[in-house]
Amino acid sequence: MKSLLITGAASGIGAATVKKLASKKVFFTLTTKSNLKGLESVKQFAENKGAKVSYICGDLSDKAFLKELVSLARSSTGNIDQFISNAGYADKKEFGDFSYDDLNRSIQTMTLSFSEIINLCIEDFKKSSCGRIIVISSFVNKSIGLNNKIFPITAAAKGSLEALTKTLSFQLARNNVTVNAISPGYTKKDGNHSALSQNEWDKIINKIPLSRLAKPEDIANLVNFLISNEASYITGQIIKVDGGLSLL
Fold first, then answer.
1. Nearest CA to 132 among 239, 50, 60, 234?
2. Minimal CA–CA distance to 25: which of 84, 69, 77?
3. Strands across the sheet containing 82-85
């Protein structure tokens, strides 16, 4: 049984990934900041598929919580085999509007938490026979200004995550551990939570070559491939899943 640690697992891409990967061969450790109801629903789905699940709520910007999270994940099987770093959020405040604290929160939640988790369990991946690390990045550090919208502090966090992905992939290649990032385009959210208005969404959808938002399952399908043996020769890549958005 392999052990998977997934952050941001209560909804969206994280939840879809858990549901895609759930089987009797998997022990999940799942986390979210505060969406306990969503996390419990995902846990129940995975357990119905035969997976073992532990879960915990907490703030990824808190180093003490990160140590607790890694300890919980390691306690399941004695080792952490795979890590899917999905937690994140979009912030559309522009220069002149965002503060130092806004930027720091973005970096802490996405970039520094990833780095700290890797530092805490890098030896686990090295020992694993199926070591895989996947970062869920974003298009916002690439397709700048689409529909006259920019996401400076989210772009900063995701851009640095992609840099860490490439350097980590090089470092762990000798241990047969693959490290890749997925860069989704605009992706359908659960419920009404969104950084954009419906009118803004409509304008964006009209510009996407495939004329629709990504579904969380579109991203989860690629995660499923990248953690498999079939993807064992793919590492250090930033793979776009954006319906052709990057063609614009």
1. 234
2. 77
3. 52-57, 26-32, 2-7, 82-85, 132-136, 178-184, 238-241
Paired strand residues for 133: 83, 179
Task: Map out the domains of the chain as residue ranges.
Answer: 2-242
DSSP 112: I
Q: Where are the beta strands (DSSP E) in the chain?
A: 2-7, 26-32, 52-57, 82-85, 132-136, 178-184, 238-241
Torsion of CA 188, 192, 194, 196, to 10 degrees: 100
The predicted-structure confidence for 71-126, as pLDDT tens digits, reads as follows 999 998 899 999 999 998 888 899 999 999 999 999 999 999 999 999 999 999 99
The two tokens of residue 179 are 């490290």
| Inter-residue contact 18 to 42 (CB < 8 Å) | yes
pLDDT confidence of residue 30: 98
d(CA 138, CA 161): 10
Cα–chain center distance at 43: 17
pLDDT, tens only, 43-61:
999 999 999 999 999 999 9
Cβ contact 114:164 at 8 Å: yes
Superfamily of domain 2-242: NAD(P)-binding Rossmann-like Domain (3.40.50.720)
- CA atoms in the 13 A half-sphere facing the CB of 49: 18
Q: How many CB atoms lie within 10 A of CB 231?
A: 17
Give, for 222, the enclosing helix (H) or strand (E): helix 216-226
d(CA 84, CA 179): 10
